[in-house]
């Protein structure tokens, strides 16, 4: 910049000798260099009149002086202050756009890769579909809708797809956003002073992609306008054969207020669940985490954690870390079973407290979408009787209560009715897979807190 200034001072020195003192002071001195572009020096004058005077009366002198000093420049132009401002604004806009188009759209968590993902029965299909997309997007599964409980690896897989794509197809524009980010982006657009322009920028951002991943889409449920916007974004991408990947904590049909239009869009591709890992997979995940993060723990600790925590891998990881840190604080190299037990004592106690009849009833009601009054009441309708029996079954299974006390919870039913309900579900889940899953899900919901 200094050099630029020096050059321009030299031009002014020449011009001062070439033109009258009045013209120099009034017009020429007000000129300032803005930039050089394609062998042309762009100047700004202090006013429209100054610009016109310079161009009309001193154009040749200015050009020659510039040519003498700026070796690579052979012409010039002059802007008025207003023109300069307009130009700057336009430039900013294009810069913004190129920034959006060029910069890596988001940083994927480097730890979340396919290599660090342990594959087991619970997640092998979703793993395979994700891997396939990351090698060849928009060919087979579009959209891919991944759903499953909290902490089971959905976000991990989305990042793994992103990480892999940036290696195998670095030219692709891949964006990962949470539903919350998408919603906020859209709301910002609505509240912007320059709404039209913001909307264009929003569209540029979301519709010029090759791969769009939206995490935790269940949060879109209550936001009708955002759903609308997402619908258009989705259609645009889909019609242009671009890949869309969505993650949610539940199946689209269980996202209560999801518009039917979106629900049927999601159904056009692959809807794949990710289930809770079985014991062996939990062990494998723990072993891998312990190894990767260098948490030294005995095999017994791994066994204990895999046994105790079976619904949420994030919690399992947390417990592993806690056990190791606890032992470490005591100056030990490796955590033994007693360290793990001591480290997690409070967590497990808290968990136990949350298991009570009220909590179980609440979860059953939420799951089956019935009210507590329904369940406790006398209705003989199938859609009430089954949840009631499930509630009885889970309460008797998880709590060590006398049958008469359980009966009291259900409006004073006697213990034979309670036994009947419990046995009915025990039998039914042997053959009815849907019911078996429902019972498992509710138990997990209860045990989670
Ligand atoms: P979700 O998005 O389903 O709530 P995350 O993807 O955030 O869950 O996973 C929670 C944690 O569990 C992360 O640290 C992730 O790395 C880990 N995790 C989940 N599934 C696996 C797996 N199969 N193998 C290894 N780590 C896993
Ligand atoms: Mg997640």
Describe the structure.
The chain is of the alpha/beta class. It has 4 domains: 2-102, GMP Synthetase, Chain A, domain 3, CATH 3.30.300.180; 124-273, P-loop containing nucleotide triphosphate hydrolases (Rossmann fold, 3-Layer(aba) Sandwich), CATH 3.40.50; 279-350, Helicase, Ruva Protein, domain 3 (Orthogonal Bundle), CATH 1.10.8; 357-447, Chromosomal Replication Initiator Protein Dnaa, Chain: A (Orthogonal Bundle). Helices cover 61% and strands 9% of the residues. It contains 21 helices and 8 strands. It has helices spanning 2-18, 21-26, 48-57, 59-69, 81-102, 124-135, 154-168, 179-191, 195-207, 224-239, 260-266, 279-293, 299-308, 313-329, 337-354, 357-368, 372-376, 382-398, 403-409, 415-431, 433-448, and strands at 32-37, 40-44, 75-79, 144-147, 174-178, 211-215, 243-248, 270-273. A 5-stranded parallel β-sheet has the order 5-6-7-4-8, with helices on both faces. The protein has a 3-stranded mixed β-sheet with strand order 1-2-3. A hairpin with a 2-residue loop joins strand 1 and strand 2 (40-44). The longest helix is centred in the N-terminal third of the chain and has 22 residues, at 81-102. The protein starts with a helix and ends with a helix. The mean pLDDT is 90. The structure holds adenosine-5'-diphosphate and magnesium ion. Residues 112, 116-118, 123, 150-156, 285, 313-314, 317 line the site of adenosine-5'-diphosphate. Adenosine-5'-diphosphate binds at residues 112, 116-118, 123, 150-156, 285, 313-314, 317.
């Amino acid at each position: 910049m200094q050099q630029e200034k020096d050059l321009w001072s030299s031009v002014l020195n020449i011009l001062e000798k070439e033109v009258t003192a009045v013209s120099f002071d009034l017009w020429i001195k007000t000129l300032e260099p803005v930039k050089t572009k394609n062998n042309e020096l762009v100047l700004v004058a202090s006013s429209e009149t100054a610009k016109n005077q310079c161009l009309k009366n001193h154009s040749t002198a200015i050009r020659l002086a510039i040519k003498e000093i700026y070796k690579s420049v052979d012409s010039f132009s002059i802007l008025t202050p207003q023109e300069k401002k307009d130009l700057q604004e336009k430039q900013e806009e294009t810069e913004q756009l190129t920034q959006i188009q060029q910069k890596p759209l988001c940083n994927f968590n480097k730890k979340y890769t396919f290599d660090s993902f342990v594959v087991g029965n619970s997640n092998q299909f979703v793993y395979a579909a994700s891997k396939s997309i990351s090698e060849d997007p928009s060919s087979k599964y579009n959209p891919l809708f991944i759903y499953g409980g909290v902490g089971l690896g959905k976000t991990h897989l989305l990042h793994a797809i992103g990480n892999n794509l940036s290696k195998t197809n670095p030219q692709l524009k891949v964006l990962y956003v949470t539903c919350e980010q998408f919603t906020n982006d859209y709301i910002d657009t609505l509240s912007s002073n320059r709404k039209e322009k913001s909307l264009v920028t929003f569209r540029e951002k979301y519709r010029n992609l090759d791969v769009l991943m939206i995490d935790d889409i269940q949060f879109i449920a209550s936001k009708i306008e955002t759903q609308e916007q997402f619908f258009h974004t989705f259609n645009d991408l889909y019609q242009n054969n671009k890949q869309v990947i969505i993650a949610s904590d539940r199946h689209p049909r269980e996202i209560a207020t999801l518009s039917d239009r979106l629900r049927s869009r999601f159904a056009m591709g692959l809807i794949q669940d990710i289930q809770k890992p079985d014991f062996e997979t939990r062990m494998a995940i723990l072993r891998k985490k312990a190894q990767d993060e260098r948490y030294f723990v005995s095999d017994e600790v791994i066994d204990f954690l895999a046994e105790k925590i079976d619904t949420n891998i994030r919690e399992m990881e947390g417990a592993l870390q806690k056990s190791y840190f606890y032992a470490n604080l005591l100056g030990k190299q490796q955590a033994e079973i007693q360290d793990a037990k001591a480290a997690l004592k409070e967590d497990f106690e808290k968990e136990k407290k949350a298991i009570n009849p009220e909590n179980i009833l609440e979860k059953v009601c939420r799951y089956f979408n019935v009210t507590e009054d329904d369940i406790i009441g006398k209705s003989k309708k199938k859609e009430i009787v089954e949840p009631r029996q499930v509630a009885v079954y889970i309460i008797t299974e998880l709590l060590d209560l006398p049958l008469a006390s359980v009966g009291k919870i259900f409006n004073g039913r006697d213990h034979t009715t309670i036994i009947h309900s419990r046995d009915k579900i025990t039998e039914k889940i042997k053959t009815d897979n849907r019911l078996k899953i429902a019972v498992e899900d509710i138990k997990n919901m209860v045990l989670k807190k």
